[in-house]
Amino acid sequence: MVAINSSAKTSLFDRAKIIVIKVGSSLLVDDNKNVINTAWLEGIAGDIVALKSEGKNVVVVSSGAIALGCRLLKIKNEKLKLQEKQAAAAAGQVLLAHAWMGALGTHQLQTAQILLSPDDTETRRKHINARTTMLTLLQLGAIPVVNENDTVATAEIRFGDNDRLAARVAAMVGADTLVLLSDIDGLYTANPKSDDTATHLAKVPQITSDIISMAGPANAAYASGGMVTKLEAARIATSAGCQMIICNGKNLAPLTRLRAGAKHTLFTATHSPHTARKKWIAGSLSPKGKIRIDDGAVTALQEGRSLLPAGMIEVTGQFDRGDLIEVEKKAGTVIGHGLSSYSSDEAILICGHKSNEIETILGYRGRDEMIHADDLVINDTLSEYRHER
């Protein structure tokens, strides 16, 4: 593990609470032998340990399952058929998870495997379940290791690359920073491998058509995306309030080098993840139902607290977990909007009850809150968020 000189640190991670790190197969897997690059993995594990020691939460999005599975199943890795990719992914994912578990376990860090498909990030209920699982793992001190669920993915319905998957994960967990470890040290005005006049861009404040035109095609054997997908990832991440960094990850302990000032491109976000989520709640959804609450609950919400079932008086409308619902006073005045932790049928059952009674009533232990404060926008800020959109 390479020590980080505190005086050499940049401010890239200083304010970050959740950092998502995307690791490509070309970094993690030896291209010639299709085996784990152990020295490199130990280096990035040391980087993660350093971040954890500073109180940061880390999520890893890791490629490499297909490459490892090809070797294990003795499949030639040129122009794989979909079913061959799925078989290789199924076999290789076991090796990939074991490798991360071993590298981080040496430092007493626990890992957890998360396999996602596009439906898991786009369908609201599945999105909430995946988000809750990953946030719970982070609260427990574990490192979620995420990959696309290639075993069940189809050619038509898949992320296709882990750059965009990493951006979706960053948005899902409310990450502050997304780092794409690549074979290049950032965005250039043209492909630096073929154009000597290409100029490196240290910072990109906005993704314009000119920026998009600078991207080039992918060329790595196992990489599904090049700079085009990285810019798409930047668009997804920054719109969710997450800054994104592209840097060269080939060297050992690449995050240590990045923090010491290694060349990179920073895509800045104009809002925090918290503000971006509030803006999405305020302007992107239509309410499916209503919750009427008592005066005590009104005061609690205005003070920035969550809505508990005990403060609920009446439930109307049909809605599912994760749907947007209106919150109104006794007199019927709407005071805010939020994402429900329960369906309308469940909400009716727990209405007016204490949170410690939810398990007895529903038969399972859900969230203590009907609407968590992070998922709630009160009227005095509602117009502000909508105006900023």
Q: Architecture of the largest domain in CATH?
A: 3-Layer(aba) Sandwich
CATH superfamily of the largest domain: Acetylglutamate kinase-like
| Tally of separate domains | 2
Number of strands: 15
Q: Under CATH, the topology of the largest domain is which?
A: Carbamate kinase
CATH class of the largest domain: Alpha Beta
Low-confidence stretches: 1-10, 218-224, 382-389
* General form: globular
Strand content: 15-25%
Helix content bin: 25-40%
> Structural class of the secondary elements?
alpha/beta
State the strand order across the main sheet: 3-4-2-1-5-9-10-8
Order of SSEs: EHHEHHEHHEHEEEEHHEHEHEHEEEHHEH
Indicate the multimeric state. Answer: single chain
Question: How many helices does DSSP assign?
Answer: 15
Mean pLDDT: 87
Largest sheet: 8 strands, mixed
**Rg result:** 23 Å
Q: What is the CA-CA span between the terminal residues?
A: 44 Å
